[in-house]
Amino acid sequence: MENRQDAIVVGSGIIGAAIAFELAKRGYRTLNLDRLPAAGYGPTSNSCAIVRAYYSSWEGVAMAHESFGYWEDWEGYLGVADDFGTARYRRCGSLLLKSAGKHHEKAVAHYDRLGVPYEDWDAAEVRRRHPYLDLGEFWPPRRPEEPGFHEPPSGELPGAIFNPGAGYVDDPQLATHNLQRAAEAAGGRFEFRAEVTAIEVEGERVAGVTLADGRRLEAPVVVNVAGPHSDHVNRLAGVAAEMRIRTRALRHEVHYVPAPAGVDFEGAGCVLSDGDQGIYIRPTTANHILVGSEDPECDPRVWVEDPGDYDRTVSEEQWNAQVFRLAKRIPSLRIPNARKGVVDLYDVSDDWMPIYDRSGLDGFYMAVGTSGNQFKNAPVAGLLMAELIDRVENGHDHDADPVRIGCRYTGVELDAGFYSRLREVNAASSFSVRG
Q1: Is residue 310 a contact partner of residue 304, using CB atoms and an 8 Å limit?
Q2: Which of 201, 297, 351, 410 is the most buried (most CB within 10 A)?
């Protein structure tokens, strides 16, 4: 019986653990397999874990807004205690600067349709709330070596959109472990240091997986949640060729710098999206600021062919690009001599929007292309995937009639067809980590 499961989930990041939890609650005997030594040990552990609502699509905003309720009631959602402790949601709010890129206009239009609470701050209000911010306009984002980077601002940004419900999760790996414990309490199992080397197929249906140690594990359902390895797993299953949207691994850096003297950023700072400079920030421990790139055109994209082999060293070039841009926004920033940060991989789809779908191989499902902007959505993604799997396994034709789920906190209905592998590239996307 240990070799026979109702569903095998390939991957134990935050979304893989959430899918297992939701399937186990429905009575599926689930087994999560991960090549790493613990749940959330891969890119999830280095996630910025920002919980924010600004996306370029209605569906993205709707899913993110629904996710707020899960993080606000994390212990209630889990229903079990974790011997490791419980991840905490830090509700600090998010500030979306109004820039020439107009991303805030897209977000506000979706906020209005969905009833997402927000406040429209003018420049004076931004300065009153966060006096350390310089609202100079520097558009477009540039790198320090580019002409114009050191020129004074061309004007002043008109203000920002503040969403009070946003924030971040203080320990993304612990949040994943919380989900592991919840799934286990519902009957799920997890196995680590277990690398999938083959997807087994019998006839036109998935039959299980084979591991690097030679074991074959049987299951009529296999779910690909392998993060940066997702395209490799799809190719193992023979489903990559049918997909109109593919995924690739992208190298990404985030950096840590101390907050300016006299600024309690950890206690009173917020998540900030600065499209004018092409960066985002959030508070982190020891009164430091976490800063990452919003993938403006000036920042090169480093695609990784082998997700098991890439440069994990914080680069001087990207450190300068992100930290120096932040210094223009926060002139009193103290820039340390030593570069501190983390380097990991995103699992990025062609339009930077996830794929939550079945495949052309019966029983093989995928939750891929999620890195960079889906951590916050893990509980909703888990629910959506579990409902999709359960419906399809019971005869529903999802490709012809996409599965829909109702949201418990917002009352919105989400259409899983938006995340189809067969969709065309979404031209409305920001084609960046913003989604």
Answers
A1: yes
A2: 351
User: Cα-flanking dihedrals φ and ψ of residue 133, to 5°?
Assistant: -85, 135
What is the H or E stretch that residue 188 is in?
A: none
Q: Output the CA–CA distances (angstroms, integers) from residue 165 to 87, 91, 95, 188, 270, in the order listed.
A: 17, 6, 11, 32, 11
What tens digit of pLDDT does each residue of 138-171 get? 999 999 999 999 999 999 999 999 999 999 999 9
Q: Facing residues of 279 across strands?
A: 274, 293
Q: Pairing state of beta strands 94-97 and 271-274?
A: parallel
**3-state helix, strand and coil shares in percent for the chain, rounded to the nearest 5:** 30, 25, 45
Contact 266, 285 (CB under 8 A): yes
- Kind of pairing between the strands at 222-224 and 7-10: parallel
Residue 371 has pLDDT above 90, yes or no: no
Tokens 């210094």 belong to residue: 327
Distance between CA atoms of residues 283 and 260, nearest Å: 12
Residue given tokens 């030679």 in the structure block: 214
Assess whether pLDDT exceeds 60 at residue 1: no
Residue whose C-alpha is closest to residue 382's, from 340, 424, 416, 410: 416
**Amino acid, res. 412:** V
- Sign of the dihedral through C-alpha 432, 135, 335, 174: negative
pLDDT at 149: 97
CA-CA distance, 167 to 328, in Å (whole number)?
23
Residues 6+ apart with CB under 8 A from 341: 253, 254, 255, 256, 314, 319
In this structure, are residues 70 and 123 in contact, taking their beta carbons and an 8 Å threshold?
Answer: no
Q: Where does 138-192 show beta strands of DSSP type E?
A: 155-156, 159-163, 167-169, 189-192
Report the alpha-carbon distance of residue 23 to residue 182 in Å, rounded: 11
Q: What is the pLDDT of residues 253-283, one digit of tens each?
A: 999 999 999 999 999 999 999 999 999 999 9
Q: Please answer whether residues 258 and 276 qualify as being in contact, where contact means their C-beta atoms are separated by less than 8 angstroms.
A: no
Cis preceding-peptide flag for 140 (omega within 30 of 0): yes
Residue 2 has pLDDT above 70, yes or no: no
Strands (E), 7-101: 7-10, 30-34, 50-51, 89-90, 94-97
Residue 24 CA to residue 223 CA, distance in Å, equals: 14
Phi and psi torsions of 32, nearest 5°: -90, 130
The first and second tokens of residue 255, run together, are 């950096």
In this structure, what token pair is assigned to residue 19? 């899918």
The model's pTM: 0.97
